Amino acid sequence: MKVALVGLPKSGKSTLYAAATGQRQDPFAAPNVHRSVVKVPDPRLDTLARLYHPKKYTEATIEFHDVPGISLADAAGVGEFRRLLPDIRACDVLMLVLRDFHREDVPAYKDRVNPEADFAELWGELIFADLDAVTTRVERLQKSLQKPSKTHDQDQRELNVLLPCKEALENERPLSTVLQSAEDRKIVASFGFLTEKPLVAVRNVSDDRIAEPDRALSPHARHNLTVCAAAEAEIAALDPAERGPFLADLGIEVPAKDRLLRACYESAGLISFLTMGPDEVRAWPIPKGATAVEAAGRIHSDLARGFIRAETVAYDDLIAHHDLKGARAAGKVRQEGKTYVVCDGDILNIKFNV
Ligand SMILES: Nc1nc2c(ncn2[C@@H]2O[C@H](COP(=O)(O)OP(=O)(O)OP(=O)(O)O)[C@@H](O)[C@H]2O)c(=O)[nH]1
Ligand SMILES: [Mg+2]
Predict the structure, then answer these.
(1) Is residue 327 part of a domain?
(2) For the domain that residue 308 is a member of, what is the CATH number?
(3) Between the chain's N and C termini, which has fewer beta carbons within 10 Å?
(4) Relative to the CA of 103, which ligand 1 atom is closest?
């Protein structure tokens, strides 16, 4: 999964990126997108690794993209946003970083500190960028449909999906409310529409307000987090042993990194299934509602193609009966078919034949 940190200039994106990834940005680096992969900690994997001593241990990962600030105040800023758009469109989740701290030495965008207003401004820009892409494509399709062509039926299908999209965007409704069926989403997937992606709103507060509760900034955000990016970046840089006392001192229970990762996972509608063996224990992200054969395909296309059944045990059942042998004796190991809907924490052993 890829997550784009997006926001107005100097809202604290690179600082939040440091908090999430441990990678500090060189302040003099060129204003390009920076990427870093973060392992998603999963205590269930730790336990399985202790039980089975595998050679390898593989967490799910999230790739964060630190996008330079989007300034919409002038033509140069709008041009810069255009340049950055393909990278943002390639991400699965948009994390909007909204400034809610005052600092004399770091001028605020439009001289205001107002996360709600900043959200609304960014939101308008997301809608506009999608509308721009849809309008251009609709015009092109309408033109090509006037002449006979090999792609006529395909173009007509695409137009049928895009016209309601255009109407929604003109009424400032996001595409997540229009593109309901998997089929429609597939037809327009290559656009990477911004208003189709889940949004996580992060309100970046100053150190003295670090304990403020999360606050909804917009009904369009699936998750709203209150974070002090500057303090959290320091926390991320600490030795794990030093972290506990530092957090307690600040009055924080969970470091921002964990909250950010969880919000990304949940907003993208992902769960994890697990695999284990002498070679590797591993967590695999899949969409909620995915079936056993889809989970198998996530591991390797051969496993989906030659799928016979999935030997399945819930992680909690395995632990309650100490190990696989115990779980089996208690009748907790099930044989599931292709259409079984995988649950978070299912340990799967795919039987296949190709
Ligand atoms: N007090 C305080 N300062 C912060 C916080 N987050 C960021 N800053 C400061 O604000 C300045 C800008 O932070 P960055 O993280 O570089 O902001 P940015 O959004 O990446 O900036 P651009 O990429 O230029 O748009 C830096 O001097 C940070 O130290 C915060 O939570 N509290
Ligand atoms: Mg930055």
Answers:
(1) yes
(2) 3.10.20.30
(3) C
(4) 1
